[in-house]
What we know:
CATH topology: Helix Hairpins
CATH architecture: Orthogonal Bundle
Structural class: mainly alpha
Distance between the termini: 48 Å
Order of helices and strands: HHH
Largest sheet: none
Shape: rod-shaped
Strand content: under 5%
Amino acid sequence: MKSLASRRARVARVRQVQHLAAVGAASVAEGRLAQLEASEERLAALRATLVNGMGASSGAVFAQAGELAQRLEQARVSLQPQIHSAREAVALRLSERQTAHIAREGADRLQVRAVAQMHREIEERMIANFRPRTKRTGDDD
């Protein structure tokens, strides 16, 4: 029974490592998504400042600012597929994390049961081996 408890403990440790790896992967995916969304917001803000921040200027400056604004908008729009992909990756990593968490909890419960069973068996063996000592009387002399 001791070997069963040690196997369950090993499985619990493996599940813990798998859970930690899944948490790390989910964090990386969430960070990547946050980075892409922040880049998109910065591009939109920069484009807005180009269009709205114009004072009295020549037509050439307006044309350059318009072209730059168009390029910024194009860069922002080209981020959309990457953001969509990153959102899907986050959803996948979160589901993997949830699955790993459930597996870890199951392994922990199995380990606790195995240890409890081992303790019960040890106590049962101790009770079975218990022999009360009888007092000897001094009649043998």
